Amino acid sequence: MLAILRVLAWIAVLVVLAVGALWGLRLAGYGYLLAVSQETVAPVRPDIPFAPLTDDSLEDPDNPTKVFRVDMARVEHDFPLSRAERAALTPANLLALGQEEVDQVYGRLTAGPIPDGPYLGDLFFPRGDDLRPRLEAILGGIEGRIAAEKVDLAEKTGRALWKGKMFYRDERALRNFIEDFRPLEGLIDDPDALPRATVPREGWLKHVLPSTDVWLLFPAKLYCGQSLLDGRRESVIIDYAYNDEMPGYQEHPDALVGRNGLRIRDEIRMIRPGFYLGRAYANKIFLLNFMLYNAELAEAGQPGFAAGDEVAEECWTGEQERQAAN
Q1: What pLDDT score does 38 carry?
Q2: pLDDT tens track for 208-227
Q3: Are the C-beta atoms of 133 and 95 separated by less than 8 Å?
Q4: Which of 116, 245, 268, 288 has its CA 20 to 30 A from that of 105?
Q5: pLDDT digits over 40-53, tens only?
Q6: Which residues have a Cβ under 8 Å from the Cβ of 91 and sit 6 or more positions away?
Q7: In contact, 281 and 257? CB cutoff 8 Å
Q8: Number of domains in the chain
Q9: pLDDT tens across 69-89, in order?
Q10: Residue 322 belongs to some domain of the structure
Q11: Cβ 105 vs Cβ 91: under 8 Å
């Protein structure tokens, strides 16, 4: 099993590094871009309940040392999330959770409505209980430390370039906000033909330059489908497999994430109106977490959500009765 984990871990690292290499990043020269894109702050844990990470009531007579993880149905039954607890979750405090805790949050959510319009984004790779990259613990030793440095570099690169997503709900389509970073133009078939948008800037630089220009790249299809983490209910799926059939497709760079490339597939569920938690997979291998936030929708939807207004569910919510309605 450890050998398999090592292989999967290195595949994840290589996928991320391949993205960086294909985009021609030279971090020594672009260090300033990475340094000012996001603030480095110490996240504070949200005050919400979590189930024990292991289920001691189960045992394998043929393998007494086997550790069983608690299943999502039991997490939701024994530790339901109230609306007040979901309101306490923010893009910042999710960064204070280990990956199994992030999984537990995701497993207690439903898809909610398919989003529409612009959502700012942030991303983070799987972390252990000590908030260090989980690959470091899996691989161990020098190999683990090297992998952790590469993951940290990939995370900074991703946060510097990826700014969020634009949803076109009626068309069941989506495009990604990618920083309008001039050294990348040579990797795009026709930069002048790309749709563009202006989005608020994150990090301390927003006090000097409050907005930034982005390209709309990497088209994807939107639909409801089964979660790769929690099959009890559906998620909103962001599927890049057939992006070459979508309007505005440019082989370079859009093919990078498509069916002949990394085969990226995202899925999201709603924490509360205007705020979604997502998971990104490369060829069905879990790669990273991401968050999508629309401040205007979050502010407008908060009073009704807190008051218990019904959520417009567009995807199958599963057969398990929701334990927390308020």
Answers
A1: 55
A2: 888 889 999 999 999 999 99
A3: no
A4: 116
A5: 667 889 999 999 98
A6: 122, 275, 291, 293
A7: no
A8: 1
A9: 888 999 999 999 999 999 999
A10: no
A11: no
Please classify residue 161 by burial: count the beta carbons closer than 10 Å to its beta carbon, then call 0-12 exposed, 13-18 middle and 19+ buried.
buried
The residues near 318 (Cβ < 8 Å, ≥ 6 apart) are 110, 232, 233, 234
Which tokens sit at 59? 């045992």
Percent of the residues in the chain that have a pLDDT greater than 70, as a whole number:
84
Instruction: State residue 239 phi and psi, 5-degree precision.
Output: -115, 120
d(CA 11, CA 70) in angstroms, rounded, equals 26
| DSSP-assigned beta bridge partners for residue 120 | 164, 293
The amino acid sitting at 136 is: E
- Token couple for 288: 């990273």
Assess whether pLDDT exceeds 60 at residue 27: no
Q: How far apart are CA 215 and CA 188, in angstroms?
A: 11
Task: Please report the DSSP string for 181-238 in residue order.
Answer: -GGGGGGSS-GGGS-EEEEEPPSGGGGTS-EEEEEEEEEEEEEEEE-SS-TTSEEEEE
DSSP β-ladder status, 117-124 and 264-272: unpaired
Range of the domain at 44: 2-306
320 located within any domain = no
Q: Mention every residue, 6+ apart, whose C-beta is less than 8 A from residue 113.
A: 270, 311, 312, 313, 314
Q: What DSSP letter does each residue of 228-275 carry, written as one string? A: SS-TTSEEEEEE-TTGGGSTT--HHHHGGGSTTTT-EEEEEEEEETTE
With a CB cutoff of 8 Å and minimum separation 6, the contacts of 320 are 73, 76, 77, 232, 233
The reply to whether 323 falls in a domain is no
How many residues comprise the chain? Answer: 326
**Does any domain span residue 324?**
no
End-to-end CA distance of the chain: 41
